[in-house]
Amino acid sequence: MTVSPEAKSGETDFFARFPSVLRVGQLSGYYRFMEKNRLEAFSDGVIAIIITIMVLELKVPTHDGWEGLRPVLPVLCSYVLSFIYVGIYWNNHHHLFQITKSVSGGILWANLHLLFWLSLFPFTTAWMGENHLAKLPTAVYGFVLLMAALAYYILQNRIIAQEGRDSHLAKAVGVDWKGKLSPVFYLLAIPLAFVNPLISSGLYIVVALIWLVPDPRIERELVKEE
Fold this sequence. Notes:
The protein is mainly alpha-helical and about 230 residues long. It folds into 2 domains: about 1-35, no CATH class; about 35-225, no CATH class. The protein has 11 helices and 2 strands, in the order αββαααααααααα. The protein has helices at about 5-15, 35-55, 65-70, 75-100, 105-120, 120-130, 135-165, 170-175, 175-190, 195-210, 215-225; strands spanning about 25, 30-35. Strands 1-2 form a two-stranded antiparallel sheet. β1 (about 25) and β2 (about 30-35) form a beta hairpin. α2 packs antiparallel against α4, α2 runs parallel beside α6 and α7 (about 135-165) runs antiparallel to α9 (about 175-190). The radius of gyration is 22 Å and the shape is globular. The chain starts with a helix and ends with a helix. The model is unreliable at about 20-35 (pLDDT under 50).
């Protein structure tokens, strides 16, 4: 079946008018489209709910003095740490999809895999805080952090596999020493939690501080793309 020049022209005009619509395949003469902004909006909503659930786990002190804060202080500290982690993932997720050009089914599932582990943050945060950094809750908290880091790594590499090793994302990621170092810290922290939970908590804080340092790699690639 031949396609008329008018049809081709109309298709070109469509993509010119709607650049956010991504062509990801062709089936029986029809194009399938997947909008990247829907994935981003859904992820932002899930992350916002995760933060909301965590803050709702905070109990109001029964006294108006400093003594009233003492019982809830462990939960508050664990909330602050988890909030920082969720913020780091949201920030990196935002930059990741800023430079991503197309979205496939595999990327959608990899993104859901990441959101699944992030959604366990409120549970592990409350468990660790309520039990004052007990051994098992602290180890489980580290396990969830480890799985979230691996899920983000899978998502990142799934995008690179789709867009190619010469893509802007692949160039921006480079050696990715942060991404490789973080799981090592988590793997150390999990067994150490059964020795001394404070050591494990210190390792979790170190990883969070490492990722708090601004990372300009993707911004540099976006500037080059312009």
